[in-house]
Amino acid sequence: MAKFITLEGIEGVGKTSNLLYIKELLETSGHDCVVTREPGGTSLGEALRGLLLSHSDENMSPDAELLMMFAARAEHLSKVIQPALTDGKTVLCDRFTEATYAYQGGGRQLDVDKISGLETWVQGELRPDLTIILDAPVEIGRARAGSRSEPDRIEKEQDEFFQRVRAAYIDLAEKNPQRICLVDASKELADVQQQVQQKLVEYNIIS
Ligand code: Z5A
Protein backbone atom coordinates (compact mmCIF):
# COMPACT_ATOMS: atom_id res chain seq x y z
CA MET A 1 0.00 0.00 0.00
CA ALA A 2 2.87 2.43 0.77
CA LYS A 3 3.24 4.97 -2.04
CA PHE A 4 5.48 7.97 -2.52
CA ILE A 5 3.57 10.86 -4.10
CA THR A 6 4.91 14.32 -4.85
CA LEU A 7 3.20 17.54 -5.88
CA GLU A 8 4.97 20.09 -8.05
CA GLY A 9 4.52 23.30 -10.02
CA ILE A 10 5.61 26.90 -10.19
CA GLU A 11 4.64 29.23 -7.33
CA GLY A 12 0.97 29.99 -6.87
CA VAL A 13 -0.39 27.11 -8.98
CA GLY A 14 -2.20 25.62 -5.98
CA LYS A 15 0.05 22.98 -4.37
CA THR A 16 -0.95 23.99 -0.85
CA SER A 17 -4.62 24.19 -1.89
CA ASN A 18 -4.55 20.64 -3.30
CA LEU A 19 -2.36 18.92 -0.71
CA LEU A 20 -5.07 18.51 1.92
CA TYR A 21 -7.56 17.35 -0.72
CA ILE A 22 -5.15 14.62 -1.89
CA LYS A 23 -4.50 13.57 1.71
CA GLU A 24 -8.25 13.18 2.27
CA LEU A 25 -8.65 11.10 -0.90
CA LEU A 26 -5.75 8.87 0.11
CA GLU A 27 -7.01 8.38 3.65
CA THR A 28 -10.51 7.57 2.40
CA SER A 29 -8.89 4.84 0.31
CA GLY A 30 -7.14 3.41 3.35
CA HIS A 31 -3.69 4.99 3.07
CA ASP A 32 -1.96 5.99 6.29
CA CYS A 33 -0.40 9.32 5.20
CA VAL A 34 2.63 11.33 6.14
CA VAL A 35 2.51 14.84 4.67
CA THR A 36 5.79 16.67 4.35
CA ARG A 37 7.62 19.22 2.22
CA GLU A 38 10.89 20.17 0.58
CA PRO A 39 13.10 21.89 1.23
CA GLY A 40 12.30 21.02 4.84
CA GLY A 41 10.57 18.21 6.68
CA THR A 42 13.29 17.82 9.35
CA SER A 43 14.87 20.31 11.75
CA LEU A 44 18.05 20.48 9.64
CA GLY A 45 15.96 20.67 6.45
CA GLU A 46 13.84 23.53 7.81
CA ALA A 47 17.01 25.39 8.85
CA LEU A 48 18.39 24.94 5.31
CA ARG A 49 15.02 26.09 3.92
CA GLY A 50 15.39 29.28 5.96
CA LEU A 51 18.78 29.93 4.36
CA LEU A 52 17.63 28.96 0.85
CA LEU A 53 14.48 31.09 0.86
CA SER A 54 15.73 34.02 2.95
CA HIS A 55 14.61 37.45 1.86
CA SER A 56 18.24 38.47 1.47
CA ASP A 57 19.45 39.96 -1.81
CA GLU A 58 22.86 38.41 -1.26
CA ASN A 59 23.87 36.13 -4.11
CA MET A 60 24.14 32.40 -3.49
CA SER A 61 26.10 30.42 -6.05
CA PRO A 62 23.85 28.07 -8.07
CA ASP A 63 26.07 25.11 -7.06
CA ALA A 64 25.69 25.99 -3.35
CA GLU A 65 21.91 26.22 -3.85
CA LEU A 66 21.82 22.81 -5.59
CA LEU A 67 23.95 21.12 -2.92
CA MET A 68 21.84 22.59 -0.10
CA MET A 69 18.66 21.24 -1.74
CA PHE A 70 20.23 17.77 -1.80
CA ALA A 71 21.67 18.10 1.72
CA ALA A 72 18.14 18.83 2.97
CA ARG A 73 16.83 15.92 0.85
CA ALA A 74 19.40 13.43 2.20
CA GLU A 75 18.32 14.27 5.75
CA HIS A 76 14.63 14.15 4.80
CA LEU A 77 15.00 10.75 3.14
CA SER A 78 16.92 9.26 6.02
CA LYS A 79 14.81 10.67 8.88
CA VAL A 80 11.27 10.88 7.43
CA ILE A 81 10.62 9.47 3.95
CA GLN A 82 12.41 6.11 4.06
CA PRO A 83 11.25 5.21 7.60
CA ALA A 84 7.62 6.07 6.71
CA LEU A 85 7.69 3.98 3.51
CA THR A 86 9.31 1.09 5.38
CA ASP A 87 6.50 1.39 7.93
CA GLY A 88 3.90 0.95 5.17
CA LYS A 89 2.86 4.61 5.14
CA THR A 90 2.13 6.71 2.08
CA VAL A 91 4.31 9.81 1.85
CA LEU A 92 2.77 12.91 0.28
CA CYS A 93 5.48 15.48 -0.31
CA ASP A 94 5.10 19.11 -1.39
CA ARG A 95 7.99 19.24 -3.92
CA PHE A 96 10.89 16.82 -4.33
CA THR A 97 13.70 16.21 -6.85
CA GLU A 98 11.58 17.20 -9.87
CA ALA A 99 11.68 20.72 -8.36
CA THR A 100 15.47 20.56 -8.52
CA TYR A 101 15.37 19.59 -12.21
CA ALA A 102 12.91 22.43 -12.84
CA TYR A 103 14.40 25.24 -10.71
CA GLN A 104 18.12 24.49 -10.59
CA GLY A 105 18.21 22.71 -13.99
CA GLY A 106 15.65 24.80 -15.90
CA GLY A 107 15.64 28.06 -13.96
CA ARG A 108 19.34 28.31 -13.04
CA GLN A 109 20.41 26.37 -16.15
CA LEU A 110 22.73 24.06 -14.21
CA ASP A 111 24.03 20.95 -15.96
CA VAL A 112 21.38 18.24 -15.66
CA ASP A 113 24.13 15.61 -15.21
CA LYS A 114 25.10 17.28 -11.93
CA ILE A 115 21.51 16.88 -10.74
CA SER A 116 21.11 13.28 -11.89
CA GLY A 117 24.46 12.38 -10.26
CA LEU A 118 23.28 13.78 -6.93
CA GLU A 119 19.87 12.13 -7.38
CA THR A 120 21.51 8.72 -7.74
CA TRP A 121 23.90 9.36 -4.85
CA VAL A 122 21.23 10.57 -2.41
CA GLN A 123 18.22 8.48 -3.50
CA GLY A 124 19.70 5.34 -5.01
CA GLU A 125 16.82 3.72 -6.92
CA LEU A 126 14.06 5.55 -5.04
CA ARG A 127 11.78 7.69 -7.22
CA PRO A 128 8.24 8.90 -6.48
CA ASP A 129 5.51 6.48 -7.58
CA LEU A 130 3.57 9.47 -8.86
CA THR A 131 4.46 13.13 -9.34
CA ILE A 132 1.56 15.46 -10.12
CA ILE A 133 2.69 18.70 -11.73
CA LEU A 134 0.12 21.47 -11.43
CA ASP A 135 0.70 23.40 -14.63
CA ALA A 136 -0.43 26.94 -15.38
CA PRO A 137 1.00 29.92 -17.23
CA VAL A 138 3.49 31.93 -15.17
CA GLU A 139 1.23 35.02 -15.16
CA ILE A 140 -1.56 33.01 -13.51
CA GLY A 141 0.70 31.50 -10.83
CA ARG A 142 2.31 34.83 -10.05
CA ALA A 143 -1.02 36.65 -9.94
CA ARG A 144 -2.44 34.05 -7.52
CA ALA A 145 0.64 34.16 -5.30
CA GLY A 146 0.30 37.93 -5.67
CA SER A 147 0.81 40.28 -2.80
CA ARG A 148 0.53 37.46 -0.23
CA SER A 149 3.84 38.34 1.41
CA GLU A 150 7.27 39.73 0.66
CA PRO A 151 8.77 37.55 -2.12
CA ASP A 152 11.52 35.19 -0.95
CA ARG A 153 14.96 34.88 -2.60
CA ILE A 154 13.70 32.57 -5.38
CA GLU A 155 10.34 34.32 -5.89
CA LYS A 156 12.29 37.51 -6.65
CA GLU A 157 13.44 35.99 -9.98
CA GLN A 158 12.08 37.43 -13.25
CA ASP A 159 9.30 35.88 -15.37
CA GLU A 160 11.85 34.35 -17.80
CA PHE A 161 13.26 32.27 -14.95
CA PHE A 162 9.79 30.87 -14.17
CA GLN A 163 9.10 30.29 -17.88
CA ARG A 164 12.20 28.05 -17.94
CA VAL A 165 11.06 26.32 -14.73
CA ARG A 166 7.64 25.63 -16.26
CA ALA A 167 9.17 24.35 -19.51
CA ALA A 168 11.46 22.01 -17.53
CA TYR A 169 8.45 20.60 -15.64
CA ILE A 170 6.58 19.97 -18.90
CA ASP A 171 9.67 18.28 -20.32
CA LEU A 172 9.93 16.00 -17.24
CA ALA A 173 6.30 14.92 -17.69
CA GLU A 174 6.80 14.23 -21.39
CA LYS A 175 9.92 12.14 -20.76
CA ASN A 176 8.56 10.15 -17.77
CA PRO A 177 4.85 9.56 -18.47
CA GLN A 178 4.93 6.31 -16.45
CA ARG A 179 5.31 8.27 -13.19
CA ILE A 180 4.93 12.02 -13.88
CA CYS A 181 1.74 13.73 -15.07
CA LEU A 182 0.49 17.23 -15.74
CA VAL A 183 -2.77 18.71 -14.47
CA ASP A 184 -4.18 21.91 -15.96
CA ALA A 185 -4.10 24.15 -12.90
CA SER A 186 -5.34 27.24 -14.72
CA LYS A 187 -8.92 25.99 -14.23
CA GLU A 188 -11.13 26.60 -11.18
CA LEU A 189 -10.09 24.74 -8.03
CA ALA A 190 -12.98 22.23 -8.23
CA ASP A 191 -11.98 21.33 -11.79
CA VAL A 192 -8.30 20.98 -10.78
CA GLN A 193 -9.28 18.70 -7.90
CA GLN A 194 -11.34 16.54 -10.25
CA GLN A 195 -8.33 16.18 -12.58
CA VAL A 196 -6.11 15.32 -9.59
CA GLN A 197 -8.54 12.62 -8.47
CA GLN A 198 -8.58 11.14 -11.99
CA LYS A 199 -4.77 11.00 -12.03
CA LEU A 200 -4.70 9.18 -8.68
CA VAL A 201 -7.07 6.57 -10.16
CA GLU A 202 -5.25 6.37 -13.51
CA TYR A 203 -1.91 5.73 -11.76
CA ASN A 204 -3.48 3.07 -9.49
CA ILE A 205 -2.95 5.00 -6.28
CA ILE A 206 -6.65 4.93 -5.36
CA SER A 207 -9.57 3.03 -6.88
N1 Z5A B 1 12.86 24.78 -4.64
C1 Z5A B 1 13.93 24.65 -5.51
O1 Z5A B 1 14.37 25.65 -6.09
N2 Z5A B 1 14.50 23.43 -5.67
C2 Z5A B 1 14.09 22.32 -5.02
O2 Z5A B 1 14.67 21.24 -5.19
C3 Z5A B 1 12.96 22.45 -4.13
C4 Z5A B 1 12.38 23.68 -3.97
C5 Z5A B 1 12.45 21.26 -3.40
C6 Z5A B 1 9.75 26.42 -2.07
O3 Z5A B 1 8.62 27.12 -2.06
C7 Z5A B 1 10.72 27.10 -3.02
O4 Z5A B 1 11.86 26.26 -3.11
C8 Z5A B 1 10.15 27.24 -4.40
C9 Z5A B 1 10.98 26.30 -5.26
C10 Z5A B 1 12.23 26.09 -4.47
N3 Z5A B 1 10.37 28.57 -4.84
N4 Z5A B 1 9.68 29.24 -5.61
N5 Z5A B 1 9.14 29.95 -6.25
P1 Z5A B 1 7.22 26.47 -1.69
O5 Z5A B 1 6.96 25.24 -2.47
O6 Z5A B 1 7.15 26.35 -0.23
O7 Z5A B 1 6.28 27.65 -2.09
P2 Z5A B 1 5.83 28.14 -3.49
O8 Z5A B 1 6.26 27.40 -4.66
O9 Z5A B 1 6.22 29.57 -3.50
O10 Z5A B 1 4.34 27.77 -3.39
P3 Z5A B 1 3.22 28.75 -3.09
O11 Z5A B 1 3.53 30.13 -3.57
O12 Z5A B 1 2.85 28.60 -1.65
O13 Z5A B 1 2.13 28.27 -4.07
P4 Z5A B 1 1.14 27.06 -4.07
O14 Z5A B 1 1.22 26.31 -2.77
O15 Z5A B 1 1.36 26.30 -5.30
O16 Z5A B 1 -0.24 27.78 -4.19
P5 Z5A B 1 -1.43 27.98 -3.11
O17 Z5A B 1 -0.89 28.67 -1.87
O18 Z5A B 1 -2.17 26.73 -2.94
O19 Z5A B 1 -2.34 28.96 -3.95
C11 Z5A B 1 -1.98 30.32 -4.16
C12 Z5A B 1 -3.26 31.18 -4.18
O20 Z5A B 1 -4.06 30.80 -5.29
C13 Z5A B 1 -4.16 31.00 -2.95
O21 Z5A B 1 -4.75 32.22 -2.65
C14 Z5A B 1 -5.23 30.00 -3.43
O22 Z5A B 1 -6.44 30.16 -2.75
C15 Z5A B 1 -5.36 30.38 -4.88
N6 Z5A B 1 -5.69 29.25 -5.77
C16 Z5A B 1 -5.20 27.98 -5.72
N7 Z5A B 1 -5.73 27.23 -6.72
C17 Z5A B 1 -6.56 28.05 -7.39
C18 Z5A B 1 -7.40 27.86 -8.55
N8 Z5A B 1 -7.46 26.69 -9.20
N9 Z5A B 1 -8.10 28.92 -8.99
C19 Z5A B 1 -8.03 30.11 -8.37
N10 Z5A B 1 -7.26 30.36 -7.28
C20 Z5A B 1 -6.54 29.34 -6.81
Structure description:
This protein has a single domain, classed as 3-Layer(aba) Sandwich (Rossmann fold), CATH 3.40.50.300. It is α/β, with parallel strands linked by helices and 207 residues long. The protein starts with a strand and ends in a 5-residue tail after the last helix. The protein has a five-stranded parallel beta sheet with strand order 2-3-1-4-5, sandwiched between helices. Helix 2 (43-52) runs antiparallel to helix 3 and helix 3 packs parallel to helix 5 (112-123). Helix content is 54%, strand content 13%. The model has no long low-confidence stretch (mean pLDDT 96). It is globular and about 45 Å long. It has helices at residues 15-28, 43-52, 62-86, 97-107, 112-123, 138-145, 159-175, 189-202; strands spanning 4-8, 33-37, 90-94, 130-135, 180-184. It is built from eight helices and five strands. The structure holds ligand Z5A. Ligand Z5A binds next to helix 1, helix 4, helix 6 and helix 8.
CATH topology-level name: Rossmann fold
CATH architecture assignment: 3-Layer(aba) Sandwich
Helix share, percent: 40-55%
Bound small molecules, by name, code or SMILES, are: ligand Z5A
- How many domains? The number is 1
How far apart lie the N and C ends?
12 Å
Strand content: 5-15%
CATH homologous superfamily label:
P-loop containing nucleotide triphosphate hydrolases
Number of helices: 8
Write the element-wise H/E pattern from the N-terminal end onward. EHEHHEHHEHHEH
Low-confidence stretches: none
Biggest sheet strand order reads 2-3-1-4-5
